[in-house]
Amino acid sequence: MVIRIGLVGFGSWGKRHFASWKNIPDVEVVGVYDPACKGNYFFNSLDELIQSTEALDIVVPAQSLAKVGIQAIEAGKHLFLEKPVATNVNEARHLARLAQSRPECLSMVGFIERFNPVFGRIKSIFEKNGPPRTVFCQRSGAPTLVATQTGVLKDLAIHDIDLLRWMLGEPKSVSVRSSRGFHFGELELSFEETQALVISDCLGPKIRRWIVTFDDLTLFAHFEENQWKLWMKHGIDEQGVEIPVAWTPPLQAELTYFKDCLNAGRPPSPSISDAVRALEIIEQAG
User: Is residue 279 part of a domain?
Assistant: First the structure.
């Protein structure tokens, strides 16, 4: 069955969504709404686009995500909503309550790293070996308007918070330190058997890495040449070896999964409630 999708937002990430949808079968992108864009493919109003679709892919600035999401649900549409879904947890909770009251409107949040094959492999290693002793996560990038407006924790660290919850469950305790002046954030999370440290900043250059330690095993994951790679080392002195992971573009896998859930009538994951929980953890900084 062909799903009729409308795209809301045509910035740099919205353009990537648009290109990915074009490579996914059984999807028709009926058009785009972005007040900054005009042309044959662009709708003149959000209401007009909503009425022409079955589902919306919402890739707008963080301060507008919840408003557009609410409009989509109230119109009875399915929705894919980019993280962080809202700029504060109260707004996100309102959105989650509305989504729960309309279960016929399937909703999913864009925590793209769950569809990254390297993190899928790390999760499978956790399931086989048991939880690790420590996990260190770092996301650094150049200064961006998104990060300075939303804060680096809600823009960058939120990915690692979601991944840790996905792999290890709910943390028992969290401590948070952030500095807007330095665009820097740090979280320490304690799980049942694992201690995790998450840091993020927009001071540059771009760095993405995970370091995971077991008693006699260390995993290194890092971003290189536009994809993640995974290495494993036994003991202290042994040289690490790369773990081959078949790379597939996470965004296309994520959107394909959303489409398949719509066709099956199956609630997708991660949910808006997952985004609420990630924001609750971050807002302990306040």
Answer: no
Q: Are residues 86 and 118 in the same domain?
A: no
| Pair 32, 7: CB distance under 8 Å | yes
Sheet architecture: strand order including 134-140: 173-179, 184-190, 195-201, 134-140, 207-213, 217-224, 227-234, 241-243
- What tokens does 163 get? 């991944």
Residue 285 lies in a domain: no
CATH code for the domain in which residue 261 is found? 3.40.50.720
Q: Are residues 236 and 202 in the same domain?
A: yes
Looking up residue 228, the CATH number of its domain turns out to be 3.30.360.10
Q: What range does the domain containing 192 cover?
A: 113-248
d(Cα 192, Cα 200) in Å, to the nearest integer?
A: 24
* DSSP label at residue 176: E
| Cα–Cα dist 214/250, whole Å | 27
pLDDT at position 145: 63
Query: 142 burial class (0-12, 13-18, 19+ CB within 10 angstroms)?
Result: exposed
131 falls within a domain: yes
> What is the dihedral angle through the alpha carbons of 94, 99, 101, 104, rounded to the nearest 10 degrees?
170
- Tell me which residue has tokens 């990038």: 141
Report residue 61 as tokens: 């600035």
| 42 DSSP assignment | B
From 138, 160, 135, select the one nearest 213 (Cα to Cα).
Answer: 135
Taking the C-alpha atoms of residue 135 and residue 189, their distance in angstroms, rounded to an integer, is: 10
Q: What does the CA dihedral 264, 74, 90, 140 come to, rounded to 10 degrees?
A: 60
**Could you tell me the two tokens for 4?**
């009729």
Instruction: Look at the chain and report how many structural domains it folds into.
Output: 2
Ranges of the chain with pLDDT below 50: 286
pTM for this one?
Answer: 0.95
Question: What pLDDT sits at residue 120?
Answer: 98
